[in-house]
What does this fold into?
Amino acid sequence: MMVRDARPEDVRQIEAVMAPAVAAGTVLPRMVRADDFLVAEDPSGALVGVVALAPWSDAVVELGSLVSARPGRGLGALLVAAAVQEAARRGYTNIVALTGISGFFERLGFLSVADRPWARARGCATLPVPEFPALGEAVANKARRCAACPRLAGCGQDLLVRRLPLAHPLAAQKVA
Ligand SMILES: CC(C)(COP(=O)(O)OP(=O)(O)OC[C@H]1O[C@@H](n2cnc3c(N)ncnc32)[C@H](O)[C@@H]1OP(=O)(O)O)[C@@H](O)C(=O)NCCC(=O)NCCS
It folds into this structure.
């Protein structure tokens, strides 16, 4: 199994991998742009898992659209590890996930925090999270987008965050 950057020709397969999770409501529908995704490819060349990265600020990036078509074999964890590594390589300091499966992410080193963007967008008071100083601005940015989302009223996802290792400047170039 290999995880790699998605290519433009992968878009239809990415949509196909996501389709059952979108239909089940566990992943939001979205316009798929290859630049946003990492994909897991099996030895036959079929895509069997996807994950996307979407910036909330210069410091914080969201891991989203995580789908494994081979559940229970470690593929979900592998995709999260690849997204974490790629986010660090791009120079972000924190990675976040808005999710209904907080336990899955906690097992992978993420911490649940109470400053949720949908709550801010609904006008609720939220507590800053001093352990993650970069989070406040990022959540505010995301909350502005949540405010325009037709699903805002029904949103109740947990926010999880994980610190990223500092990227070494020489690591900014990928090794082939
Ligand atoms: C969540 C998901 C990506 C996990 O993929 P996976 O390949 O099964 O992941 P792994 O094999 O690394 O981990 C499996 C573990 O995750 C747990 N897990 C899977 N789905 C879960 C869920 N909905 N809630 C809580 N835990 C879950 C399993 O119980 C399993 O735990 P175990 O090892 O103790 O049995 C996959 O189930 C999926 O695509 N789900 C539908 C889309 C989705 O919910 N995406 C996450 C949105 S943030």
About this structure: The mean pLDDT is 93. The domain at 2-166 is CATH 3.40.630.30 (Aminopeptidase). DSSP finds five helices and seven strands in the chain. The longest strand covers residues 47-55.
